[in-house]
Amino acid sequence: MQLSPLYSGNQCLYADIKQNDHIFRVYSVHLQSIQFEPADYKYIDTVTQKGKPDFSSTKRLGGKLKEHLLNVANRWL
Length: 77
Hints:
- By secondary structure, the protein is an alpha+beta fold.
- The protein is built from 2 helices and 2 strands; from the N terminus they run ββαα.
């Protein structure tokens, strides 16, 4: 779904959801271009299911996300 005339293949949607007195912002991000590897997906599943983060894996994924988001931001400037 094209969200803007400057469509780059990378899109992000968000919704603010109010529950009681709290507002939660939920993001949906197209991550294909970040090129996660199978080990990255396995790590995400492990953290999601067992809640056991690993510092080096978290740092690797954070680095990929940071690099990607900076590249996307630079294209918009």
